[in-house]
Design a protein that fits this description.
The complex is a heterodimer of chains A (about 80) and B (about 400).
Chain A: E1 3-16, E2 19-27, E3 30-33, E4 36-45, E5 48-56, E6 61-67, E7 72-79
Chain B: H1 3-8, E1 11-16, H2 19-27, E2 36-39, E3 47-50, H3 52-55, H4 65-71, E4 76-79, H5 82-97, E5 103-107, E6 110-114, H6 119-122, H7 125-140, E7 144-149, H8 152-161, E8 167-169, H9 175-180, H10 192-200, H11 206-211, H12 214-221, H13 224-233, H14 243-247, E9 253-264, H15 267-287, E10 290-301, E11 306-317, H16 320-332, E12 340-352, H17 361-380
Parallel strand pairs in B: 2-4, 7-8
Antiparallel strand pairs in B: 1-6, 1-7, 2-3, 5-6, 9-12, 10-11, 10-12
Helix pairs in contact in B: 5-7, 12-13, 15-16
The chains are: A mainly beta (about 80), B alpha+beta (about 400).
Chain lengths: ~80, ~400
């Protein structure tokens, strides 16, 4: 069952041709390598566009998101 | 429309298979290939979309959590994530519009495409359907069923005939054979009540409906009688109405509701929910330049008994507090006999673009405050600035209404 987290994180990602591909993120004292981005969707928070990524390291499933206005990343929930 | 023109139309109906469940299975690899279902709320929702693996065990849309678990004890559940589904729908719309501008979104997971005249550019309807299926699979990892027919009625019938991942073509020459022994309830638009009324007239199949006397049908159903007989004959002149045209239709009402995590008997708490919903409705009305004269409150008891009470106002309103005041007075007139499971607020009898500048300074101040709050909330997110009472508001799961559309007044 996913656990709600909603914490800021540091992310390594490739921005290319209008697309974002997260490669790794640091959370809870460890670096998690993204093996597969399973789904991408967008929402908005006021005028800010938020891009959500469902990612897995092969063991756990995480929802991370990128705020295109503040340029901040957050991990929203984890199922690991 | 002349018969020859009707025969020439090439309509596709696309139905995304177990849409919500399939999206969750794509997003979460551990759910793929397993009996799972999307549920409105993990605490107490109903089944919104079972996967095909779950359907094999008898799990159906609308079942309660307990009923679904009885049908399939190892059923996995995923809470609904409407933002994921609405965004996916917008992306699917983008794919469909690459083939034709005539795309009518029928619901969040269904659409009609008119590809008449597209043959020279992108191939015949079957080729188009195959290419659409391929793109949806490649880009979103989802499957769909597509029906092809000379009108919307038959295209929809076709997509319903083979699920999942089907492709059914009903050509004009096959119509009478396909419909002859088909139960009338299989036709989109003929629900359980009409099916029962037709059965009372001795009509059970589309063939029988098509041969029925027009006089008998109109005597029983009025104007609908002729439409029903046409349905039995597979005739449907309705055009595919593109999204841009759909937006032009003015809203008749606007509302929001929420299912509570726990049944609630506390009147002050229910009033706070009404204030929260009234604020959402008011903001949406103001954004669409609407105001309305009738405020309704819908309540659902713990045993699912649901009722609506409404109040007509002397003037049209679109301010959250006005809607709340009307909603609260409705609530106070109700003698609650059970705890409440769901509460909803809506405003109807709408007028558009008729708002006047208030004469009195207090009212003007209130209008300016509402406008300033809207501006801040538009920039920083809903309820960034709100009434102190709502600081402790209820965070409920958003529900996608059947009327949802990706843009315009129905985009919430």
């Amino acid at each position: 069952m996913p656990v709600e987290i909603n914490e800021p994180i540091t992310v390594g990602a490739v921005f290319s041709r209008g697309e974002i591909q997260p490669l790794w993120f640091s959370w809870s004292g460890r670096q998690i390598r993204v093996r597969e981005t399973t789904f991408i969707w967008k929402t908005s928070e006021g005028s800010a566009r938020i891009v959500h990524f469902s990612v897995t390291d092969g063991q756990g499933l995480y929802e991370i998101c990128y705020n295109a206005k503040t340029l901040l990343w957050r991990v929203l929930n984890a199922d690991c | 429309m002349r018969i020859a023109e009707c025969r020439k139309r090439k309509i596709l109906h696309i139905d995304m298979n177990a849409f919500f469940a399939s999206v969750e299975q794509r997003a979460n690899p551990s759910l793929r290939g397993r009996a799972m279902a999307v549920i409105g709320s993990l605490h107490r929702g109903v089944i919104l979309s079972p996967s095909y693996e779950a359907r094999a065990f008898g799990v159906k849309t609308g079942m309660t959590y307990r009923e679904a678990k009885m049908a399939c004890p190892h059923l996995l559940l995923a809470p609904a994530d409407p933002a994921k589904y609405s965004h996916t729908c917008e992306e699917l719309l983008g794919i469909w519009k690459d083939f034709t501008p005539l795309v009518e979104l029928f619901s969040i997971d269904e659409a009609f495409l008119d590809v008449t005249g597209c043959e020279r550019l992108i191939g015949d309807p079957v080729q188009i359907a195959i290419r659409i299926k391929e793109r949806i699979w490649q880009e979103k990892g989802l499957t769909c069923s597509i029906g092809i027919g000379p009108n919307k009625l038959l295209a929809k019938l076709g997509s319903d005939m083979k699920k999942p991942d089907g492709l059914v073509i009903i050509s004009p020459d096959d119509v009478s054979e396909v419909l002859e022994n088909l139960n009338v309830k299989e036709i989109c638009g003929i629900g359980p009540s009409l099916t029962q009324q037709l059965a009372a007239m001795g009509i059970r199949t589309c063939g029988e409906l098509g041969r029925a006397s027009l006089r008998d049908l109109t005597a029983r159903f009025g104007l609908v009688g002729e439409r029903l007989r046409n349905m039995g004959l597979g005739i449907d002149d309705d055009p595919v109405v593109p999204l841009a045209t759909q937006h032009e239709e003015e809203a008749k009402s606007m509302g929001h509701s929420m299912t509570l995590d726990e049944d609630c008997s506390d009147l002050s708490l229910i009033e706070r929910h009404i204030l929260q919903l009234s604020e959402k409705v008011g903001r949406r009305l103001r954004r669409g330049l609407y105001s309305g004269r009738t405020v309704s409150v819908v309540l659902r008891y713990a045993d699912f008994q649901t009722f609506t009470r409404q109040r007509k106002l002397h003037h049209a309103v679109n301010h959250g507090l006005d809607i709340y005041e009307a909603g609260r007075s409705i609530l106070r007139d109700i003698d609650l006999r059970q705890p409440i499971r769901l509460v909803g607020v809506s405003v109807s009898n709408l007028e558009k673009n008729v708002e006047q500048m208030p004469l009195f300074s207090e009212e003007r101040k209130r209008k300016f405050i509402a406008e300033a709050m809207d501006e801040i909330n538009d920039r920083h997110g809903a309820f960034t600035v709100t009434w102190g009472t709502l600081a402790d508001r209820y965070f409920h799961e958003r529900v996608i209404s059947p009327a949802w559309r990706p843009t315009g007044d129905r985009s919430y």
